[in-house]
Amino acid sequence: MGGVYAVDFAAVLLLADAMGALNPLLVELLPEVEPIIVRAYARHSD
To answer: Which of 16, 31, 36, 45 could form a disulfide with 21 if both were Cys (CB 3.0 to 4.6 A apart)?
Structure first.
């Protein structure tokens, strides 16, 4: 309980925009890499 189960897409996109890194590729690939990010956090929390 209390682990990472998803990525806040809005937060990621707002941060990318603030950093000047927002582009269509990020928007398109974010849903594809979300499971990889979640698994990586789950491994490090064990």
So the answer is: 16
pLDDT at 43 over 90: no
CB 30 within 8 A of CB 9: yes
Residue 44: alpha-carbon gap to chain centroid:
16
In the chain, where the domains are located: 9-45
DSSP character at residue 32: H
CA distances from 30 to 2, 6, 9, 24 (A): 22, 11, 8, 10
pLDDT digits (tens, 9 = 90+) for 11-39: 999 999 999 999 999 999 999 999 999 99
